[in-house]
Amino acid sequence: MRHLLDTRTLAREDALRILDIAEDMADTQSREVKKLPTLRGKTVVNLFFEDSTRTRISFEAAAKRLSADVINFAAKGSSVSKGESLKDTAQTLQAIGADAVVVRHPASGAPRTLATSGWISAGVVNAGDGTHEHPTQGLLDAYTIRKRRFGADSRGRDLSGLRVVIVGDVLHSRVARSNVWLLSTLGAEVTLVTPPTLIPQDVSSWPVRVLYDLDTALAEEPDAVMMLRIQLERMHAAFFPSEREYTRRWGLDAARLRLLPDDTIVMHPGPMNRGLEISSEAADSARSTVLEQVANGVSVRMAALYMLLAGAPAGPSTGSGTRTEDNEMNRGDR
């Protein structure tokens, strides 16, 4: 795998390969020595043109646990704030010998431009671009669902037969888009629930069903309910009458939580607007995977960097046969 830019074009076998390698990576994180020597001598640059906490820290932890050298680059306070172009920034990274660039950018398509322009030879990972995609978030969400539903026997398994409901601000959500494509590729049935004003103009080509009533969707007893953050910072018009009205119609409150089956999991990519799209009762319940998603993100991003930089072949997953370089994983960083 040369780059990881989206989930829409990610092959099923490649997605399963990443999830299975993430299982191997997660196994190493329960050891006393968590670091692996896999990417020793490689340089990973976190190139963030937008603010981020979870994603940036997660990628930094993933790279360091694989023994890579990490350079964190924030647009604020850099030459970008003085007008430097993406091309000039990329050529600077090329000059310092970056092997992988993890990029978050407000413009949809910026990571693909970086990957295909010829400005840089490094592998590129999209850490979120505009309202386009956020592929590693989609992968960690799929990993979390698979782990919760199938436990230790999840290697090599897809999500066939599972029903996932994604609720909220789909219009502005790159997380929703990545999940729609990836979960569908892995066999899940995806339903979007959203106010009519917060659905993209044309989703006829998306492999989803669209509903506008949350209670109708929850009555079908889904396996997972993913609540999306209301992205007020991207809203320059009135998309719903009031926050109170939104919570009443599309929020996951304590009453709705009680009606869900005991094994339905509750997800949120964070950061959460507690009391708006999700109540504290739902966010802090035993069904919630919010903190698991954060922890699983490190393992999934370790797997993605491994695939890009360690030459792991992409191909069909075959259960126990996908163990990642067993000798190296067992040796750790001694």
User: Which parts are unreliable, with pLDDT below 50 for 5 consecutive residues or more?
Assistant: 312-322
Q: State which percent range the strand residues make up.
A: 5-15%
Q: Please summarize the sheet with the most strands.
A: 5 strands, parallel
Helical percentage: 25-40%
Report the CATH C-level class of the largest domain: Alpha Beta
Q: What is the N-to-C order of secondary-structure elements (H for helix, E for strand)?
A: HEHEHEHEHEHEEHEHHEHHH
Radius of gyration: 20 Å
CATH-defined architecture of the largest domain: 3-Layer(aba) Sandwich
Shape: globular
Number of strands: 9
CATH topology of the largest domain: Rossmann fold
Straight-line distance between termini? 29 Å
Provide the spatial order of strands within the biggest beta sheet.
7-6-5-8-9
Number of helices: 12
Mean pLDDT: 89
Structural class by helix and strand composition = alpha/beta
CATH superfamily of the largest domain: Aspartate/ornithine carbamoyltransferase
Q: Kindly give the count of domains.
A: 2
Jot down its keywords.
alpha/beta, Rossmann fold, 2 domains, 5-stranded parallel β-sheet, 4-stranded parallel β-sheet, 9 strands, 13% strand, globular
Task: Give a verbal description of the structure.
- By secondary structure, the protein is of the alpha/beta class.
- The chain has 2 domains: 146 residues, 3-Layer(aba) Sandwich (Rossmann fold); 157 residues, Aspartate/ornithine carbamoyltransferase (Rossmann fold).
- The chain is 37% helix and 13% strand.
- It contains 12 helices and 9 strands.
- The protein has a 5-stranded parallel beta sheet.
- The chain is globular and about 55 Å long.
- About 3% of the residues have low confidence.
